[in-house]
């Protein structure tokens, strides 16, 4: 008899975990409290999505689970080679992400989720149950974990027993809450003072020969309108549109309490964006779309003893979206857990234990990186000292290859380097960079401005 | 019509808050999920209590609410003038808490809770409802908050509407969980690696003329058997017994998994304690009493907008028991909130807002102090440098009075100094002490040991 598992949450991480477990021979039941999103109409959209950027860790994990599935679900991704910074006058400046042209990839969350659900449907040993809201888990000391669900029929409950439970039910995880009743779990949730609002950039009205005809701005960049403590971003969709998101402090958003204030604010700060969104549409969206909160969640450990339960994805480590790593990290969770199950020949108790013990430092690291990256994104690149250091970082990265790795490269393009290792390497390089920078400044003052100009030209030529 | 309030939790803080609000004219309903503890038999005891030490902040707050009530509920307290340190050979050494004989006071949690419930019964505008477990609060935007309870009858629910809700339902607060659904509350819970087990020291078998006849050891000290990363403590009860508590790392406790291991451990580490507890009783208790976990809870803010709800006591700030401040701080919450209601002439929205804003820094401060005090308690006073500094601290405190205040004095005996202020003052004094200490050591090495001996004698004479 195969072991049975309840995967709670049919979002991105839940679907991938279900597939990975099914392919290992487990009998999987995948539950979600929502109805099947593939049956939803446009009106059902929650208007709160932030487009995803899938990069090395996400892709590697998908391929690890199944190369063919990876190909199918990623067929519509749009590569983004860098940021496109929009200033107040509408001028655009591109900044590359990778040293050698590596890209991150824009994909709509809903589209990716639906493709993964299709893959779930293709597998015989996964049963998919929508409209099932987890209300309780009765953990027993070893054999069976009984999950209680409320279903759409008001006050109907259903109970199922499984060998173990895998919670992929997001930042407000019910699985986690049930586990907290069983074990001493350290836990924190922290809201950052930032509200987000989804906006929508329609496809170009007229044929735009510059960008495949249909896009109003480059689809191959992550567009940013950095304005200090607030910003607008936009990521391309396959149909020529962009999903755009405004981020700003709650007090700012709440102060824009009339249509005319919103209109003035948008025109003053994002004139070129307003032009492609449409003024009325932009104001409508800003006024009426739901306002999202951003929360970081940390906890530890992630599992219950005896291999009875474990949480992955946002349920274990919700992070702010500013490093584009939330989903990538969640997919990596799946890969790491599967590798540990292999290492321990399917001994769940040992695999879960090692997962909690080893994965924590990486999760804490990326949560922190994501939080600090808000400043870099929203303030743009301004100080000339910062620019000099950044250019040196790139120059050394290109010249020394694997011996010098910029942080962004390690996080986004090197799935083989764990997050915490990336931070360690970055710390060391930072010290060297500071030293080099000081040396350059000293030489510049000794040798006059000539040397500095020469160096700047050299650096610029390498871009 | 008076405003109506649901106080959730009839523990120490809930009872005091109910009394304070009732005396201000609010119509109070006080709910608790337990049955009336005054009807409980000895068998019902949960065997997990740690005796309380009530000090200035707790007493001042009780008196602030009602001087007569304070007198009545505190009539059986036993003053403790200091710690009594027990070494491995059973030798005892007293350390004073106050500079001028100030005491903290031992009281049994159950006894205090029952006296407060009696006071609640005396007030006409408090309705007391036991056996009511909060399951949901439907917060509406302004007027009425509907509280849903499950009662002892299985699957019966009762609903009541109130103007506002005051949550005093402890570290695992349901009120807090309900509020978290309504607002962006930062929250953390952290378990420390420490398990506690309640033991019991019976009254002296024979008449003990030294300690009022009935106590086996001094009732006027908080007894500590410090043993590095674990310890035993004991606080006196009115009947001649002591409530004793063992604290130690989980791995240590779990390693003592046979009666003979427990027996060896207790005899080796706490020979004199085992003698007064009784060997069999000590081993029985250690083996069979429930093992408690210690958790810190921090959150912010503490209230819902429009004066709809607020949390006090452990629900808002659970701390480890090592500074004896948990209940004192909870009582102080009540006083601070009442003073703010007065200041804002009963405008709850304004009072709650100011409470969240101002109280946070004090709560975070005492949570941190309590955590760091574990080390001081369990390691005892060992290093001679530490002892020198401690003596200087005391000496300066006695000589300079209000101009020099040891931290313990500020926290335990000065309700007029907020916790965060106490830490600030301590930081400044610490720098001065370090400087003085360095100077003394320098003078000692210059002037030979003669000076040091003279100084030590001077310091000792002042004790």
Structure report:
The structure is a homodimer of 463-residue chains. By secondary structure, chain A is an alpha/beta fold. Chain A folds into 3 domains: 4-75 and 107-189 and 295-372, FAD/NAD(P)-binding domain; 190-293; 384-461, no CATH class. Chain A contains 16 helices and 19 strands. The first copy, chain A, has helices at 12-23, 56-65, 67-73, 109-122, 174-180, 250-255, 259-269, 271-277, 279-288, 314-317, 326-343, 348-379, 384-400, 407-413, 419-447, 449-461, and strands spanning 4-8, 27-31, 52-54, 78-80, 82-86, 92-96, 104-107, 126-129, 132-139, 145-151, 157-162, 164-167, 186-201, 221-226, 231-236, 242-248, 292-300, 303-304, 309-311. A 7-stranded mixed beta sheet of chain A has the order 6-5-14-15-16-13-17. In chain A, a hairpin with a 4-residue loop joins strand 14 (221-226) and strand 15. In chain A, helix 7 packs across helix 9, helix 11 (326-343) runs antiparallel to helix 12 (348-379) and helix 12 (348-379) runs parallel beside helix 15. The longest helix of chain A is centred in the C-terminal third of the chain and has 32 residues, at 348-379. The first copy, chain A, is globular, with a radius of gyration of 24 Å. The N and C termini of chain A lie far apart (59 Å).
């Amino acid at each position: 008899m195969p072991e049975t598992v309840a995967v709670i949450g049919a979002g991105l991480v839940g679907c991938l975990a279900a597939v990975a477990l099914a392919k290992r021979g487990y009998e999987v039941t995948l539950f979600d409290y929502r109805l099947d999103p593939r049956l939803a109409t446009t009106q059902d959209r929650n208007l709160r999505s932030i487009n995803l950027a899938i990069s090395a860790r996400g892709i590697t994990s998908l391929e690890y689970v199944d190369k063919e599935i990876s190909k199918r679900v990623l067929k519509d991704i749009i590569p983004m080679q860098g940021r496109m910074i929009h200033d107040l006058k509408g001028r655009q400046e591109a900044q590359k992400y990778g040293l050698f042209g590596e890209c991150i990839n824009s994909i709509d969350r809903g589209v990716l989720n639906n493709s993964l659900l299709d893959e779930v449907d293709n597998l015989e040993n996964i049963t998919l149950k929508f409209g099932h809201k987890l209300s309780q888990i009765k953990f027993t000391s070893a054999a069976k974990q009984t999950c209680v669900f409320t279903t759409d029929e008001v006050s109907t409950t259903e109970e199922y027993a499984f060998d173990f439970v895998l919670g992929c039910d997001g930042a407000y995880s019910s699985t986690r809450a049930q586990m907290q009743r069983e074990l001493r779990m350290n836990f924190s949730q922290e809201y950052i003072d930032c509200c987000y609002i989804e906006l929508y950039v329609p496809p170009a009205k007229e044929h735009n020969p510059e960008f495949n005809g249909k896009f109003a701005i480059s689809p191959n960049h992550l567009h940013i309108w950095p304005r200090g403590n607030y910003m607008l971003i936009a990521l391309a969709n396959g149909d020529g549109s962009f999903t755009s998101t405004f981020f700003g402090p709650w007090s700012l958003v709440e102060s824009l309490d009339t249509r005319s204030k919103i209109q003035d604010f948008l025109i003053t700060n994002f004139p070129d964006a307003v032009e492609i969104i449409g003024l009325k549409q932009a104001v409508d969206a800003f006024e009426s779309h739901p306002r999202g909160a951003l929360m970081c969640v940390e906890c530890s450990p992630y599992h219950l003893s005896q291999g009875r339960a474990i949480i992955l994805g946002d349920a274990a480590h919700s992070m702010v979206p500013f490093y584009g790593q939330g989903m990538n990290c969640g997919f990596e969770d799946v890969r790491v857990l599967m590798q540990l199950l292999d290492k321990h020949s399917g001994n769940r108790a040992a695999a879960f234990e090692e997962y909690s013990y080893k994965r924590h430092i990486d999760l804490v690291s990326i949560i922190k990186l994501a939080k600090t990256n808000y400043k870099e994104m929203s303030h743009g690149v301004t100080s000339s000292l910062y620019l000099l250091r950044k250019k040196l970082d790139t120059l050394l990265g290109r010249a020394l290859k694997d011996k010098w790795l910029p942080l962004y490269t390690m996080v986004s393009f090197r799935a083989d380097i764990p997050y915490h290792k990336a931070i360690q390497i970055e710390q060391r390089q930072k010290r060297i960079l500071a030293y080099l920078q000081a040396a350059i400044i000293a030489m510049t003052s000794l040798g006059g401005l000539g040397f500095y100009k020469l160096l700047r030209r050299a650096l610029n030529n390498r871009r």
